[in-house]
Amino acid sequence: MKKLLGNIIKVLLPLALGAFILVWVYRGFDFARAGEVLRHGMDYGWMTVTLVFGILSHVIRGIRWKLTLEPLGERPRTSDCVYAIFVSYAANLVVPRVGEVSRCGVLSRYDGVSFTKSLGTVVTERLIDTLCVCLLTGLALVLQLPVFNRFFKDTGTNIGTLPEMLSSTDFYIILLCVAGILALLWRLLRSYSFFTKVKDVLRNVWTGVLSLRRVQNIGLFIFYTALIWLCYYLQFYLSFYCFGFSESLGPVVGLVLFVVGSIAVVVPTPNGAGPWHFGVITMMVLYGVGQEDAGVFALLVHGIQTLLVILLGIYGLIMLSFTNRRKRYGNN
Predict the structure, then answer these.
(1) DSSP secondary structure code for residue 37 in this structure
(2) Burial group, residue 54, by CB count within 10 angstroms (0-12, 13-18, 19+)
(3) pTM for the structure as a whole
């Protein structure tokens, strides 16, 4: 009963956090306007292009994952690696960060890959992703420091102005997001503390973490990593061209909003729902986009991208079952 209650809380808390922030961000918003833009004001050609880049990023991530598994003596099918990525992102919509574990389980089930070793490679991936976000954040800060200063001031997160900080409702939204991140880290640390009790498991995880040192073609790994983040950026930036009110925003603005969105999705809500909207809307307003237009942009872009994640997850589950069943029958 206690375990069941814990699982329910793991699902409901991220949903509640995301829902609370969304309700606050969209208080007084005219949702009929969003429906009107969806029907008549959005360029579906450009939106299709953004979704193509979204799919490509997942495919390349799956191919790169296989590259890190090979030094460990694990050789799963490339298609299974890609489908596992599809499934993992969809799983994160249910319980944030559970996808990292689920994709390791997929390869363990269908390709016999060591679960703990593959988990180690995922840890390495997340470290690389964190480094990429930090580098992009540094670049964005250098290019647009005055805008970030305005963001900190407007949201009450400028520590130099304590009275403004305490009187800003946006500050408490950010504080809630930070609390969510800390709760996620605490849960992860508690989970990993279990592994420390099992030396063989920990050793396999660590072997997976160090797999990057043994990748035969490190240049190819770096190339795949650059492609993944380029696809992420283009998926976001090209969405500006889907709407008349955002098509004039340039690539540097796209980089700034992309960085803010990438940081926001760290908050443990389904696909960053809530914090992502808050960050993107706030920054778009600073660049001269109307509050309502910025709300429409965030709502539609995030909603469509989330729908893509769900569809890819369903497709991945179907294809995993189909291709591996065919493989079993072919071996008989």
Answers:
(1) I
(2) buried
(3) 0.80
